[in-house]
Amino acid sequence: MQDEPLIRVECAGKKFCRSFKRSMLYTGLDLARGLVGRTRHAGRLRRKEFWALDGVSFEVRRGECLGLIGPNGAGKSTLLKLLNGIMQPDKGRITTRGRVGALIELGAGFHPLLTGRENIYVNGAVLGFTKRDMAEKVEKIIDFAELRDAIDTPVTYYSSGMYVRLGFAIAAQMEPDVLLLDEILAVGDPGFRAKCYDAIYAILRKAAVIFVSHSVTHVARMCGSVLLLDKGKARHFPDTGDGLVAYLESVDRSAQIGEMRHSNGQTAVTNLRVGCGEGEAPIALGHPFDVRFELTLDPGVRKANVVLTVLARSQQSVASAATARGRIVNTGRPQLVRFHVPRLTLSPEKYALGLSVFDADRLNQVLWYQNVAPFVVQGEARYGAPVTLLGDWTVDDTHSP
């Protein structure tokens, strides 16, 4: 049936052993049990074993893209290897229909001593394509990867970006029914990432895609739903935004990034405050926004300028503002510095500030703060982009083209 899932995972579990020697012992015992027709200890843990995945269930149909998210060590790579048939589950059942294309590990499926061209043919043969089939596809793969000058070079000399280019080009051109992608957009230049987006959208018309990324922006753009893994347990969210909120909250609980402050002693910033400009009301999208602090300059600094940045949870700068050079003149007294935004366009999320003060005459930095004054912008979280465009929509059904 057309609507039948291409990927079905039913209560799947995978366990590992923390001791290598004991793991080898268990493997031998399980093989021996299998030879004499006895069941393996698949459903329970033995000494020093743990569940890397436990009770994971979901389905993905043709035309759907499922985002697989979670902190490092949550079980994402293990699940992809189960889906790709590299490993078998210890309990539960995993079913995939059709041809599976995967880019789940840098260099996976490549022989380092073979050239890029030879590896293309090898990958095609593994997926069941004949040499004649591959002769029709190889030029498209080379063109997509933009590696024509290096295609007859052994891949052991490829950079990580070249590996990803070739691996994704192969996966994209093989017309898979199921496509598994692990952090494909984390490596490569912006132009190639744009090509990857276009290719994934084209594949989605007739395939099921599982997309792994730590970037909430990439997941929000690509995925219609998400599966959040945490310590081997899975939660499925039909709404991508809800899943990303849960993911970011789990990251906040597990790892707090501390603030950093440095000054050479010529400058002091005190009473740094972030607010809405209207007392204690919450900071909200479309409302006023203020940053205020008291600045004290050493007599050796005659004039100063300030650079303010807004940092996302990832510590990436998503907005900035700066005074004109020499805008702040040393008066010998503390000065109240205020930056006012009449209509805030930051998307609802958690943020912090970065603050730098420069000596305008010597052009050197005299104070540097990072990840200070955390604040939350209230509103409906969408995670499409860090900035929301505020404007008015109009629809005129009387307009003729």
Describe the structure.
With 401 residues, the chain is an alpha+beta fold. The longest helix has 16 residues, at 20-35. It has helices spanning 20-35, 76-83, 116-126, 131-145, 160-173, 190-204, 216-222, 240-254, and strands spanning 7-17, 49-60, 65-69, 91-96, 100-103, 178-182, 208-212, 225-230, 233-237, 260-263, 267-275, 289-297, 303-311, 317-322, 328-329, 335-341, 350-359, 364-376. It has a 6-stranded mixed sheet, with helices on both faces. 25% of the residues lie in helices and 32% in strands. The mean pLDDT is 86. α3 packs across α4. The chain has 2 domains: 58-254, Rossmann fold (3-Layer(aba) Sandwich); 260-376, Distorted Sandwich (Coagulation Factor XIII, Chain A, domain 1), CATH 2.70.50.
Could you give a short description of this structure?
This protein is an alpha+beta fold. The chain is 25% helix and 32% strand. It folds into 2 domains: 58-254, P-loop containing nucleotide triphosphate hydrolases (Rossmann fold, 3-Layer(aba) Sandwich), CATH 3.40.50.300; 260-376, Distorted Sandwich (Coagulation Factor XIII, Chain A, domain 1), CATH 2.70.50.60.
